[in-house]
Specification:
The radius of gyration is 38 Å and the shape is elongated. The chain is 32% helix and 19% strand. The longest helix has 23 residues, at 2-24. Strands 1, 2, 3, 4 and 5 form a five-stranded antiparallel sheet that branches. By secondary structure, the chain is α+β, with helices and mostly antiparallel strands. The chain is built from five helices and five strands, in the order H-E-H-H-E-E-E-E-H-H. The chain has a domain at 30-107: 2-Layer Sandwich (Beta-lactamase Inhibitory Protein, Chain:B, domain 1).
């Protein structure tokens, strides 16, 4: 009786355990690499310095993954990935703040001792000064040959009275 109970339990447990192994290792089946959380690397951690403001940390690290209501001065960054069906990789880092300035780092990364130098890929372009003496409308009408000086000015009402008074006989 014991042997049959053992063999029966072995026969029912074997397919349950082997299903996940067989399904995860099927040849020709593409599995997606799923990344969750904030992507954290050592270069980002090396840019952190004591005394940085929260705004500067947001620029370097991005917004924290977990916002703890009970600990407003602690930011938690989590990252997990399962590349190509391999074992799950999980990394975390916690930043501590006092008076909105970073005072501590704890987690899977250690800050570097070298000064943070980030190579800039930006280039400077000298832009020539614009000619702002003429408006766009003046430039367009200048191309057509239409100048405002060609338009006879309309006499004002006050101007007509003055000319009429000047033309009266004495």
């Amino acid at each position: 009786m014991r042997k049959s109970l053992f063999s029966l339990s072995l026969l029912t447990a074997l397919p349950l355990v082997s299903c996940s192994t067989i399904l995860n290792n099927l040849p020709g089946v593409y599995t997606l690499e799923i990344q969750q959380g904030n992507i954290i690397d050592q270069a980002m951690i090396d840019q952190l310095r004591p005394g940085m403001s929260k705004r500067q940390v947001l620029y370097v690290m991005g917004s924290p993954m977990l916002d703890d209501v009970f600990h407003k001065n602690r930011w938690n960054y989590l990252y997990s990935a399962r590349p190509d069906g391999e074992d799950k990789i999980q990394k975390q880092i916690t930043l501590f703040f006092e008076n909105d300035q970073i005072v501590g780092v704890q987690g899977d990364f250690k800050p570097g001792v070298a000064p943070a130098l980030k190579a800039s890929n930006e280039t400077t372009v000298d832009v020539p000064k614009r000619d702002l003496e003429k408006t766009l409308w003046e430039k367009i009408t200048g191309l057509v040959g239409y100048d405002e000086q060609d338009i006879p000015s309309k006499p004002d009402k006050n101007d007509t009275k003055k000319t009429a008074e000047n033309n009266l006989p004495l």
